[in-house]
Amino acid sequence: MPKVIKKRTVKKAESGSEDVSSIASETLQYVKEKKNVLISVIAVLCIAVAAVAGFRLYASSLTAKSHALEREASDYYYGRNLKNPLSEEERFKKALELYQQASKVKSSALIQFYIGNSYHKLNDYANAIKAYTEFIDKYSKEEKIMPIVYQKLISSYMKAGKTEDALRTIEAFKKFNNSIFKDFALIEEARIYESLGKTDDARKKYEEILKEFPNSLWSIEAKLKTSAKTEREIKTP
Predict the structure, then answer these.
(1) Which of the 8 DSSP states describes residue 123?
(2) Are 137 and 149 within 8 A, CB to CB?
(3) Assigned domain for 103 exists
(4) CA 60 to chain centre
(5) Beta carbons of 201 and 170 less than 8 angstroms apart
(6) Which of 155, 78, 137, 67 is nearest to 103 (CA)?
(7) Which of 112, 90, 109 is nearest to 99 (CA)?
(8) CB atoms within 10 A of CB 12
(9) Tell me, what DSSP letter sits at residue 142?
(10) Alpha carbon distance 147, 173 (integer Å)
(11) Interhelix angle for 146-159 vs 125-138, to 10°?
């Protein structure tokens, strides 16, 4: 009997040893697999971080180059820091060239605005219209510059002899950003009608300003215009 017990005990030990060895082997294999996955994940993350850093560095270099071209263009536009004297036309042509180069590197609202202004200064109203229209399409949230852009676009249409397009642009300007610049649009509209000799239409726009925007900056001009016309009407026999 003791021998039988001893044999059984040895068998159990062997079986237990095999189980432990199997578990250990499986655990080791699992760790190896997870280690490989972890290494792959870390590698992907490193590549992603490097790509983002590289893109930011590249974007930063483009921004710096664009700003440098923009500053040089502004010097020509305003006639500052020029080594050699240039005529006004030459300055604006050079400014336009540099602004266009800056835009190709990295466009911005200010660069687009000055591209339009350069064309306007060169009396190239067709291209000025294109540039200002592109500004309105691309940079509709630039509220600080937008009123001037609309004014320049309207002026370009008028100088190009496109009165109807100017008036249509004014109608669009009235609606821009919940009509916050409607008073400015109305004063521009009144001025156009006045320049065309349409005094009655001009008067209506001036009166509209006084009625809707009594505290507007443009209400002073509207009051002067309407009062002057009233005086002329009284003096007329």
Answers:
(1) T
(2) no
(3) yes
(4) 17
(5) no
(6) 67
(7) 112
(8) 10
(9) -
(10) 8
(11) 150
Return per-residue pLDDT of the chain as tens, 237 residues: 555 544 455 444 455 555 556 665 665 565 565 556 556 556 555 565 555 455 454 446 657 888 999 999 999 999 998 888 899 999 999 999 999 999 999 999 999 999 999 999 999 999 999 999 999 999 988 988 999 999 999 999 999 999 999 999 999 999 998 899 999 999 999 999 999 999 999 999 999 999 999 999 999 999 999 987 655 553 444
Number of domains forming the structure of the chain: 1
Q: What CATH number is given to the structural domain containing 126?
A: 1.25.40.10
Residue of 106, 135, 116, 118 lying closest to 76 (CA atoms): 118
Does residue 20 sit within a domain? no
Q: HSE, CB side, 13 Å, CA atoms: give it for residue 35.
A: 6
Cβ contacts of residue 26 below 8 Å, gap of 6+? none
Q: Which amino acid is at 46?
A: C
The tokens describing 160, both together, are 């190009």
End-to-end Cα distance, the chain: 148
Print the domain residue range for 178: 65-235
Q: 196 in a domain, yes or no?
A: yes
Q: Has residue 4 been placed in a domain?
A: no
Residue 94 CA to residue 74 CA, distance in Å, equals: 10
Question: DSSP H helical segments within the chain, as ranges?
Answer: 2-78, 88-105, 109-121, 125-138, 146-159, 163-175, 182-195, 199-212, 219-235
Q: How far apart are CA 3 and CA 7, in angstroms?
A: 6
